[in-house]
Design a protein that fits this description.
- The chain is α+β, with helices and mostly antiparallel strands.
- Helices cover 20% and strands 36% of the residues.
- The chain is built from 5 helices and 16 strands.
- The strands form 2 sheets. It has a 9-stranded mixed β-sheet with strand order 1-14-15-16-13-11-12-10-9. Strands 2-3-4-5-6-7-8 form a 7-stranded antiparallel β-sheet, covered by helices on one side.
- Helix 4 crosses helix 5.
- The protein is elongated.
Length: 269
């Protein structure tokens, strides 16, 4: 095999990248039990999930983002309407179509009634935007806080959603990629950060590289072989920029003029 030494531009510093992602998503990552400037409380943020809580006029809205499955769920707990009544608990599934710097679009679905409520916002959300006090009292809390809470969940989970596909910062999925049996993951560089979506099979990974798109592999052996096969027996690398830690991932490129921009990433630690 022929190794060529051409270098391509790789992701910038991980710290700067994450700062950019937080800005794009209009949120921040906070310590557990902290309260954000717009009233959301971080209940949990570990390697498995993020859970947030929002409150409005005595009602509560809980949201959970599963970092492994990328599933988001909401649970509304609304105060009793009379002394003899109980609190009303409503659970929602969430379908996010887009959540990036230009657009936010999502639908929440009541798990019992199947009723849907859609959110669609253009442009960057003002991080200081707060729920206006004059909102009618009868609007469900999920309709009032749902969009903001979903955005915060994604920001805390270092995630973006592009055309219905959720991508998470590669550093958040390091243990998953190393320890699961899956070999290949869809990836891309977003805002200077390597972000990773769900696992894919070899044929899908091969086709992505052939289209100039990025893939993250479980190990270097798989990455080199994928780049070599896509490059008809020729590849470039391995390359790394920086020290190879989070944000500077080792990678190969297939040696084909039309495919040279594709990155085949892997963890080297």
């Amino acid at each position: 095999m022929i190794k060529l030494l051409n270098k391509v531009k790789a992701p910038v510093s991980f710290f700067l990248s994450l700062c950019l992602i937080f800005t794009l998503l209009g949120g921040n990552v906070f310590a557990k039990n902290a309260t954000t400037e717009d009233g959301f409380e971080i209940i949990r943020n570990d390697r498995n999930a993020v859970e947030l809580k929002g409150t409005y006029q005595g009602d509560e809205l809980y949201g959970t983002f599963d970092k492994s499955t990328h599933k988001i769920t909401l649970r509304a707990v609304e105060k009793a309407q009379s002394l003899l009544a109980s609190k009303k608990v409503t659970k929602f599934d969430v379908n996010v179509l887009q959540a990036d710097e230009d657009e936010f679009e999502a639908t929440i679905i009541n798990k019992e009634t199947k009723k849907e409520h859609k959110f669609k916002e253009k442009g960057k959300r003002n991080k200081d935007e707060k729920v206006k006090a004059q909102l009618p009292l009868l609007i469900p809390i999920a309709d009032i806080l749902g969009a903001a809470l979903i955005r915060k969940l994604l920001a805390a989970g270092l995630a973006v959603v592009i055309f219905g596909v959720t991508y998470v910062a590669a550093s958040e999925l390091a243990d998953t990629i190393r320890n699961k049996d899956d070999h290949y993951y869809a990836a891309r560089i977003y805002g200077g950060t390597v972000v990773v979506a769900g696992s894919i099979d070899y044929n899908t990974a091969y086709n992505r590289v052939n289209m100039g798109e990025d893939v993250f592999c479980k190990n270097e052996y798989l990455a080199q072989n994928l780049a070599a096969h896509a490059g008809k027996g020729y590849w470039v690398g391995p390359h790394v920029h920086g020290d190879g830690s989070d944000g500077y991932y080792h990678h190969y490129h297939p040696w084909m003029p039309a495919l040279g921009r594709a990155h085949v990433f892997f963890f080297n630690y």
